[in-house]
Amino acid sequence: MKWDCIKPRLVLAGFFLVLFATACSQTIPPKEPEQPSVSEGDEVWFEYTLKLKDQKIVDSNVGKEPLKYIQGDKKIIPGLENAISGMHKGESKQIVVAPEQGYGTVNTKGFQEVPKSSIPEKLHIIGTQLQGTDAKGQVVRPRIHEIKAESIVLDFNHPLAGQELFFNIKIVDIKEAASKAESVPANQ
Predict the structure, then answer these.
(1) Which pLDDT band holds residue 172 (cuts at 50, 70, 90)?
(2) Overall fold of domain 43-104+161-176
């Protein structure tokens, strides 16, 4: 038997054996635990910047204390709450909220004409926000929409009614609902 013929085959077989042994001996890193995602009943903390279509910043809490709410309690506008559902801690997202899912469309019944004399003259400026109480004693904050010869038209709609809202949000923390945390087996 000639070694010259067998020798390259042995070297090649040895190479594949070493390659196979190396591949088999590598440890598979443990699977990282999945980050909890926002779902019904969770306490959620998030940062946001709210802009309008013209990119004007309306509000932001970035660099301040995060906003905290409970998912499903309907304490924030529906379009924002729906978009946050399923997000994970540390995740950022840009969200566009239509008026119907934000502060609503402009309601023509939200305009009321009052005599000019019922508002102090120094406040007779379009856009001025007033504060008063309605017939039920509830605080109202209408804005002056129009000034006529003998009257003033007040707008009781939310200032962002009819506006498309552009949010940049980041989930800062999620505290799972107690019922969700209890349903996970202890050994997992």
Answers:
(1) very high
(2) Chitinase A; domain 3 (3.10.50)
